[in-house]
Amino acid sequence: MISVDRGLKNLKRVRQIIGVFIKYGFKDTVDRLPNARRFIPAKIQTQFLKGSSPERLRLALQELGTTFIKLGQILSVRTDMLPDDLTRELSKLQDEVESIPFKEIKGVIEKELNAPLTTLFTSFSQKAIASASLAEVHRATLKGNHKVVVKVQRPNVKEITETDLSILGTIAGWMEKEIPEAKRYEPLLMVKELERNLKSELNFTEEGRAIDKFRNNFKYDESVIVPEVYREFSTSKLLTMEYIKGVKITDPSVPERMGLSQKEIARKGVDFSFKQIFEHRFFHADPHPGNILITKDGKISLIDFGLMGVIDEETLGLLGELMVAGINKDTETMTEILIELGIAGEKVNRQELRANLRDFVERYYGATLSQIDLKDVLNDLFKITRRYGLKMPRSLLLLAKTASTLEGLIFQLDPEFSIIEQLEPYIHRLIKRRYSPKRVLENMSKILRIYYRLFKKLPGDLTSILREIRDGTLKVELEHKGLEDLITHSERSANRLSLSLIIAALIVGSTLVLQTGKLFLLGIIGFIITGIFGIGLIIAVLRSGRL
Hints:
The chain has helices spanning 11-23, 27-31, 34-37, 53-64, 66-77, 84-90, 102-113, 117-120, 157-178, 187-201, 204-217, 254-258, 262-280, 313-327, 331-341, 350-364, 374-387, 394-413, 419-434, 437-471, 484-515, 520-544; strands spanning 123-124, 130-131, 135-142, 146-153, 224-225, 238-242, 247-248, 282-284, 292-294, 300-302, 308-310, 343-344, 390-391. With 547 residues, the chain is of the alpha+beta class.
């Protein structure tokens, strides 16, 4: 778990982070965090004010390195909460860095496998074929002439990310406490999600399991090839897998070399992705051109399984129903499904939401499938959910990002290709499966089991409640919301009333003392004190703005 206090221990890094945000023009935000202001470096000035706020934020995150790049990538998916221009800009974040000296990579491999590199591999390329902030990838050959690629975690990266996460946890806590409008974005939950993601990405054993699962899903599909993981040469910091020789799916030489048209390649790519989502519900969530290869025999392959998505059958089924309801202009059903899918921060105005969905449907109704841009549809839908505070599950947001990335890839291959047209049969099969007799019986059986357990426990629960009522031990807890301000105002009013009574008593007492003709000085002092109290009370009332 993230420790809020531990983040303050590395003061140098805290100052560096705050300094970078100030440098990119976010001093106003830092100034709103009193706890953060004390860590502002002595020599810092705003240097980069050109460009929009989203652009400057992207540059700041890029400069701060691994943990902050990953945070930006998580935020780029939150189209249900954040503005389009911000998520669009954050999606440009690139995690590419220079290679580190090979001796450090060699040290990690030998320590993890507890053997010299020369005894483990017959050859090992010192030049990385890919280099990111978490790991590097090198080509190598195992005994038996097995061509492999080796993903090696960078030294000390785990310690660096743990330090940054603790600092981010501290800053997120400050934001939730001191910036009221930040609460709706739940900064602490965002940091916890980042922590979960990084923990998963830093454990290459999990990525190896993902590859094995993916390989098993497509073991009978002859059009797909998934690399094999070599377990004996893999650890939590090391992943050795089969080398797949191929070219990027967008390589212009593919049609000529493999006898495939651009449309056929596009169809292959889309079918491959839709099978992952609708048949296996386990999908590669980053299908950009660099991660999809075409082999010389026309097979399709994936590399880099660091970001995978999982979606359950129920969510997928609701998504299918949402699409069908949209086609049928059934905004009532769309409203209910969206509320069921999302987490509502507050009570949703169903009538307004339904009206907005009606406008959304009319915008696309009547257009041919080839005329509809999937990315535009998703963006417009998430604008509506954002307006009504509906927070979508991450699996659905990851699916939307995957679909959007896939559409961009397919457009490069064939601008005339319609993904939505290709999607139609998968939706029909999904709905058919959802309402098949077998599935209906399974759902009914599940509901009956739930009610059976409920009724089985009911007599005991009622007996327990009645016993507590009889014995006078039943306790009812009431939680008040929004009464804190009322209590504060009531206390303030009571204090002012008490002060007014004291002033009145002093006036009466001082007047009586003066009338006696004795203790004249004491009476004058009483009036002076009364005047001071009276002026103080008037100032307090005027400052409150309420007379």
